[in-house]
Amino acid sequence: MESPCCCATNPRRATIHIETGELNFVSSCSRLAVFDIPPGESRLFDTSSSIAYAWIANRYYLEFENPFIGTPYIHAGYDGSGFTLPPNHCFLGGTLVVKAKRLGEGDGVFANLAGHTFTIGRQGDKADFKYFIVDLPATL
Questions:
Q1: pTM of the predicted model, to two decimals?
Q2: How much of the chain, in percent, has pLDDT values that exceed 90?
Q3: How far apart are CA 75 and CA 30, in angstroms?
Q4: Pairing relation of β-strands 3-9 and 129-135?
Q5: Neighbours of 116 (CB within 10 A)
């Protein structure tokens, strides 16, 4: 199965802190990387799981899923994932704003998370992953 891959772009004048990881269906959450994206730069991250997450600025949660059957989808929330049960137990609680929004190649969605608009799109798939792109809000 192809895993999700994501590229986040920082249009701000300040650095943005991000944690990325993956989830699996046996209620396991694995942090894979913690990094900062300097102003005007982008960062690519991917996983070997069918579910990837990004925890942005210690407040905003994005999840990218590629189900075994069907179109890939995203979840987005703030102050936690918005979920209260596994496997989404990395960041329990919070407010879920976008739930299971399916994105075909070329599709996108705006997610208003606590007054900040994230632009999330799905690009053309690669041989080994589903490719999403996130434009982080300049207002963070």
A1: 0.92
A2: 59
A3: 18
A4: parallel
A5: 17
